[in-house]
Amino acid sequence: MKKIIPLLFLLLFAAGNLLPLGKREKTQTKTQHSELQKVEASGRVRLVGSSPMTSLVISGEGREWYIESGEKEKLMHLQQQNVTVIANEYYEDRVFANGAPAGRFYFLKDITVIDK
Description:
With 116 residues, this protein is an alpha+beta fold. Helix content is 16%, strand content 50%.
């Protein structure tokens, strides 16, 4: 019994020191923003993601535009329908926590629906 207690202590000490050996991820990620640009966007309105992180997007040919949260009410009732909107577009170049590029995400704000 006297030999088991120091052995357990040694095992716990060794296991506790293994945790810091992993690569530490960056906590701050930088995104690059573009200037606002007026565009006409056409495509199907879709809800993507899973709860609680869903996003409303317009899927056009070759591009998806994410709808800002304040603008979702204008398009939520048009899901799975093709629409044409005029809006201000901007993009963000996003990166993962480890610094790898995650891609360019396009967003729409100040949306006006012109065709349903």
